[in-house]
Write a structure and sequence with these properties.
2 domains; 7-stranded mixed sheet; D-Maltodextrin-Binding Protein, domain 2; 435 residues
């Protein structure tokens, strides 16, 4: 039967309108395991919200930071949801670049861990919701430590770590004494190195905002860092970031690794780790002080002020950071695979505690990190492994490159710190902190 022309036309227009009715959300995220899992679970969200379609832009950490920073600063409106961290959130929230998050009643904001909620809020308003949270800790091969007669304290010293690295280093057997980040970046090698330096009594800036990178504390920390990786680390350490070391650790090639607590869920997973049953945990090592010895970070989801689909974006953020999402991952992948470090209810769940032998050490590390008091000398900035000021990104990148050069043997520690001090001083003068 042939439809009258006008009816056929209106029907095809209605169908076209229906097809176009779905809102497309563009989500920028980082290529970490938990985010990749979130993308696989997209159909669950789209089924519950048939009027919303998700489009993912997955990038390496450094590239993601560049893209989202450029987009938000120019009000580009390229992304509806951005994966950002504790560094960007307070700065961008204050500038009015992010929409305040107003989750639905069932979301239970009070269930968020206080350290995470505070770090993602400005003046009591939430500007990003934690997708997963982390601190850092020491992860080590208990079998190798036992064999070498090493017993780690709950929070070992850096001297303990150096001695253990020397004893467990066995490159002939394919085992390196210690694996640490070396790839340059403010959120890469400098995230780790800042905590190491903090524990030696260092700080980025004194109370007059003058950079302190040529202090004895920085020199002692960086000297030990270079020594550890040169003598007891895998070859090519200056190019290694989280994912490269995770692969090495899972292959059984690292006796020790100090990095994000989130790594624990991957290295204890027998599906991806050859040493899953041989891993033990301790708190981040310290030298002169335990202050700032382990970092605090959240990969969080935020809605930029430039998004034309803010209401739909808020729905997605609410879904991806909810208790229901954690339960969904548990159902699909098991409790050991859920994103951690965000909610009190996760750590109160007996099934999670049974599945995640790292839970206690992880929560202890998160609870002990205080961004408002992370250095032995008084500092004017907030942040453990960064200073939450706009200039820090450029400073951290410049210093990270110098530290990577020192590690690769292209510069002495003294020369690298001198160049770092000069670069930091230039940025702070440019920023008007002092003349």
């Amino acid at each position: 039967m042939k439809l009258p022309h006008t009816l056929a036309l209106s029907l095809s227009l209605a169908l076209a309108a229906g097809a176009q009715a779905a809102t497309e959300l563009v989500i920028a995220t980082v290529n970490n395991g938990h985010m990749i899992e979130m993308q696989k679970l997209t159909p669950h969200f789209e089924k519950a919200h048939p009027d919303i379609k998700l489009k993912w832009v997955t990038l390496e950490e450094a590239v993601l930071r560049q893209r989202v920073t450029t987009d938000i600063a120019t009000k580009g409106g390229q992304f509806d949801v951005m994966t950002i961290g504790m560094y960007e959130t307070p700065i961008w929230g204050k500038k009015g670049w992010l929409n305040e998050l107003k989750p639905e009643a069932g979301y239970d904001v009070d269930d968020l861990l206080p350290a995470m909620r505070n770090g993602l809020s400005v003046d009591g308003k939430l500007y990003a919701a934690p997708f997963y949270g982390e601190s850092s800790m020491l992860m080590y091969r208990k079998d190798l430590a036992d064999k070498a007669g090493i017993k780690f304290a709950d929070r070992p010293t850096w001297n303990d770590v150096r001695d253990a690295a020397a004893k467990m280093h066995d490159p002939k057997a394919g085992v390196y004494g210690i694996c640490l980040r070396g790839k340059p970046g403010w959120g890469d090698n400098m995230a780790f190195l800042s905590t190491m330096a903090n524990s030696f009594g260092a700080q980025w800036f004194d109370m007059a905002w003058k950079p302190q990178l040529e202090s004895k504390a920085w020199k002692d920390a960086v000297t030990l860092y270079v020594e550890l990786l040169t003598k007891f680390g895998p070859p090519g350490s200056s190019a290694n970031s989280f994912n490269e070391i995770l692969a090495l650790y899972n292959e059984g090639k690292c006796a020790m690794w100090i990095d994000a607590t989130i790594a624990a869920s991957f290295i204890t997973d027998p599906k991806q780790s050859k040493v899953a049953d041989k891993v033990a945990f301790a708190q981040g090592p310290y030298a002169a002080t335990q202050k700032g010895a382990n970092w605090l970070w959240a990969w969080a989801l935020a809605v930029p002020a430039g998004s034309k689909n803010a209401a739909a974006a808020q729905k997605f953020v609410g879904w991806a950071t909810s208790k229901d999402y954690i339960n969904l991952v548990a159902k699909e992948k098991g409790w050991a695979a859920v994103p951690t470090g965000t909610r009190k209810s996760t750590y109160a769940n007996p099934e999670f505690l049974k599945a995640a032998k790292f839970a206690e050490a992880e929560k202890k590390a998160i609870d002990s990190a205080n961004p408002n008091d992370s250095t032995l000398p008084k500092s004017p900035y907030v942040g453990v492994q960064f200073a939450a000021i706009p200039e820090f990104q450029a400073i951290g990148i410049a210093v990270g490159q110098q530290m990577s050069a020192a590690l690769a043997g292209k510069a002495t520690v003294d020369a690298a710190l001198k160049a770092s001090q000069t670069a930091a001083d230039r940025e702070m003068r440019k920023g008007g902190y002092y003349k």
